[in-house]
Amino acid sequence: MPATGSWSLLLLSLLFWSLRLDLSLSFSLKNCTISYFPADANANGVAVECSSRKLAVIPNDVPRNTTSLDLSMNRIVRISTVDLRGLFKLKDAQFHNNWISHIDDRAFKDLKDLNNLDIAGNKLTELTDDMFEGLTRLETLVLNDNQISSISSGAFQHLLSVRLIELGENNLTQISDVVPAFKVPTLKTLQLEFNNFESLEFDSLSVGSSSLTSLDLSINPLTRFSLKEDVFPHLQNLGFDECFQDMKWEVANKTFLRSLDRLTLSGTSISFKTYKEMLQTTDNIQNLVMANMDIWVKSDLVSIACQISSLSSMFLTGNNLGFLNRHMLHSCSGLTKLNLFLNQLTGMSEDAFQPTPLLRVLLLSSNRLTEVPAALLTLSSLEKLDLSSNFITQLRCSDFHNLTRLLSINLQLNRIFSLKPCVFQNLQDLKQLYIGQNSFFIVGDCFKVHLWKLESLDLSMNEMTTIQEGDFATLSSLQDLILLSDKSYRVAHGAFRGLDSLQTLSLNLAFFPNEVFSWLPSLETLNIHLILTVDDVTVNDNPPFSNLSRLTNLTIKVVNICRVLITPNLLSGLKSLQYFWTDAFFTGSLHPDTFKYTPRLRSLKIIRSNLLELSPELFRPLKNLKELDLSNNKLRSLGFLAEATLSTLNFLNLSENELLVINETVFHSLPVLTYLDLSENPLACECSNSGFIRWAIENNQTQIAHGHGYTCVFPVSQGGNRLLEFDVLSCWVDVQFLCFLSTAVLVSLVLLSSFVHRFLRFHLTYAYHVFLAFLYHKRRRKNIAPHRYDAFVSYNMQDEAWVYEELVPELEGQQGWKLCLHHRDFEPGRPIVENITDAIYSSRKTICVISQHYLQSEWCSREIQMASFRLFDEHRDVLILLFMEDVPGHLLGAYHRMRSLVKRHSYLSWPRSARTIFWQNVQRALGTTEATNTGRVA
Ligand SMILES: *[C@@H]1O[C@H](CO)[C@@H](O)[C@H](O)[C@H]1NC(C)=O
Ligand SMILES: *[C@@H]1O[C@H](CO)[C@@H](O)[C@H](O)[C@H]1NC(C)=O
Ligand SMILES: *[C@@H]1O[C@H](CO)[C@@H](O)[C@H](O)[C@H]1NC(C)=O
Ligand SMILES: *[C@@H]1O[C@H](CO)[C@@H](O)[C@H](O)[C@H]1NC(C)=O
Ligand SMILES: *[C@@H]1O[C@H](CO)[C@@H](O)[C@H](O)[C@H]1NC(C)=O
Ligand SMILES: *[C@@H]1O[C@H](CO)[C@@H](O)[C@H](O)[C@H]1NC(C)=O
Predict the structure, then answer these.
(1) 907 pLDDT higher than 80
(2) In the predicted model, what is the mean pLDDT of residues 661-690?
(3) Please, what is the Cα angle at 430 between 426 and 433, to 5 degrees?
(4) What CATH number does the domain located at 31-196 have?
(5) What tens digit of pLDDT does each residue of 725-754 get?
(6) Which atom of ligand 2 is the closest one to the Cα of 74?
(7) pTM across the whole model
(8) Do residues 479 and 502 make contact, with C-beta atoms less than 8 angstroms apart?
(9) Domain 760-927 CATH (choose: 1.10.10.1590, 1.10.418.60, 3.40.50.10140, 3.90.1150.10)
(10) Looking at ligand 4, which residue's alpha carbon is closest to its atom 9?
(11) Ligand 2 in contact with 24 (CB < 6 A)?
């Protein structure tokens, strides 16, 4: 028994140790989550998300095969050499907005595959030679918003593939600070905005010949930009946004900027004269941004720019332009794209665009126009027109009359209150029409003109409340129709007639109208916002979606909380449905038949629905379900999962329910579950959760998303403690171990007491001898064979007469066996114990003559003990029990071991008659040799 005790202690400590071990290797990450829906839908990617978790160090349990790691918005102060060890597969690493002031040399050494590294918004002051060692595949390095003032000459030498380096918002002051960047042969884009550069003088000595195509010097206190030699032969993009003061522009030869395609200028700090010089040395540009220049733009800078014959696109945003006249664009005949976003335009002269007949794109959004300018009529090449965010109240028939090439019109966010059919009638090429967030009440006949090619129509957020029969009847190419608003529509029976190509429809409804959707044979996505006006809404008995056999995505969101009565056949006919997302739609319960029509469903969301419980039958038809979101309900038990047979489920969100205790066995019935979210449940730090806790920590397949952050609500004494840190061992000790321990102690006590009872009472020393003898013979027995006797006969003195008168004559005389009888064959003077053991081990069998006297005699029962030792030891059936009389059960009961022997082994009762058969049976029992005999001889 002491041995068993120490074994269990050892086992216990092993278990404890393995628990500890598992904590550090656990599949659920401590401070991070492996995204189930990674933003970058890289099928084989492992995206680890640890953003905004107040982390001070980089977690050490990031899986080795992580491809994307987001540690942004934490409090990390340092990246050390061990932090990112072994992350050989990492492609994207986000460290922005931390407190990093130090990065160890070679900290990124293992990141051989890294493409993007973002360390913006930290406290770095210098970049050392070996900081970026190993990043041979890095393409983008973002270091904005640090305090970098020194870059070591070899800092970028290891970056063999880098194309973009962002060094904006740092404390760089002179060209020598950034020479290492200019020298990177693969670098295309260098962002140096918002630093402290004052004088920049580029020559071959400092820069060599750079491969840069894009250089941003915006928001610097530049006093001088000097290009003395042809060091930027490939430069296409140059930016000087919002520089603080006027500067000297010294470009020795126009040809130095021959590749320049785009020039970005803004602000009024730079003088008109300098701007003019700039424009005169950049005469190959096609794109020019002149933003927030106000007076300079008004003072004819536009004309100067338009001298550049290659110029095709001009952004004149934020220039406070109030009225556009012909003069402003008079020399801009080559323009194809003009952006006048965010000015104060109230109107324009009718000939304002006459000089620019080639315009294809005109962006006038965020101005103060009250009508569509008549000036547009001259733009017969216009393809894209943006008039959003103005004050237009009305559209006239002539407004777009001549714009027959238009492909896209954006009129969102105006005050248009009525639509006339004539407005769009000439726009036969129109593909996109956005006219949401206006104020019209009816569509009327507006779309009954022939917009054959219209593909997208956004009418959201208007005042419409009805959709009439045939409103969209001619829009046979329409693919995408948005009718969402804060009002619900009365939809006429044939409202969607003719929309044969419609794939996506979003609208509000007050109820599910009968057969309205039956006109939409191509519909794949339907988003419905239910805005209910009465308390109870009954769905018609006719299933509303029955003809939508191609629908894959259905979203139903109830906007105002009401009780919806839903018939079980709601989804009838949706045989292609894959995504069914509902928000506050089902209330309280679902009919078990709800999903029997949708066998292809792979993603099901039933959130904010007050669900108390679900029936397992509900999920039975869903053989392809991969994602199930039941968050924000009132579930208290997960029993339904155990029987739901969701054998394909990967993702399960049960956050914001009322789960207190979780029985982890339900997850055994979800064989491929990889993501489980149980956040925001009132979980209990109690032993009833210990099974779940251990499973959460130990299982290596299912991630318990945010698991290490779950805190307990119950019991009050544990309130706020972390669930996964609950000491399950105490439960184990409490319940199982105590159980085990107490059973063990009880058993040993019982054994011990019976031991004491049987042995000590008479011959403690005898017991000791029996044991020694047993050991001795056990060791010796191998040498003993062959047996000297056929059987050793153990009997009580009281039965001696029977033995000598009946047994011996029969077995020795008639049957010819050689018996060992202690009165006859024991060696005199030898310890009795040795004699017994010797007799037992040198006989093939032991015959016990059992009577009440026998059972009461100590010596005889020792013989049984011994024989049964041998029995267990040699696995041979050596014992033959001959019962002289019916022994009362309670007497036998004391001989535990014998009782089981009697149950299993040969025993024979001395009969009152038919003794011949008895002796034949004894003969047979003596005759069996090897092999365990479990058969009864009766
Ligand atoms: C990433 O590794 C984990 C275990 O280390 C494994 O379960 C998982 O399948 C791996 N993921 C990928 C995409 O290789
Ligand atoms: C990170 O996880 C560990 C282990 O669960 C926890 O002790 C620590 O508080 C967590 N850190 C943060 C910032 O949540
Ligand atoms: C910028 O660097 C200069 C020296 O190069 C230093 O004097 C100044 O304090 C730094 N400014 C900031 C905001 O770190
Ligand atoms: C500018 O450079 C080109 C070619 O490098 C050369 O032919 C031309 O003479 C130079 N012009 C001036 C004004 O130096
Ligand atoms: C509009 O187009 C018509 C011909 O389709 C033309 O006669 C008319 O002059 C155009 N309007 C303007 C303002 O250019
Ligand atoms: C359906 O929704 C899913 C999830 O948002 C999306 O990935 C898929 O592209 C959608 N399908 C269609 C046809 O819109």
Answers:
(1) no
(2) 90
(3) 110
(4) 3.80.10.10
(5) 888 777 766 555 556 666 667 767 766 666
(6) 13
(7) 0.74
(8) yes
(9) 3.40.50.10140
(10) 253
(11) no
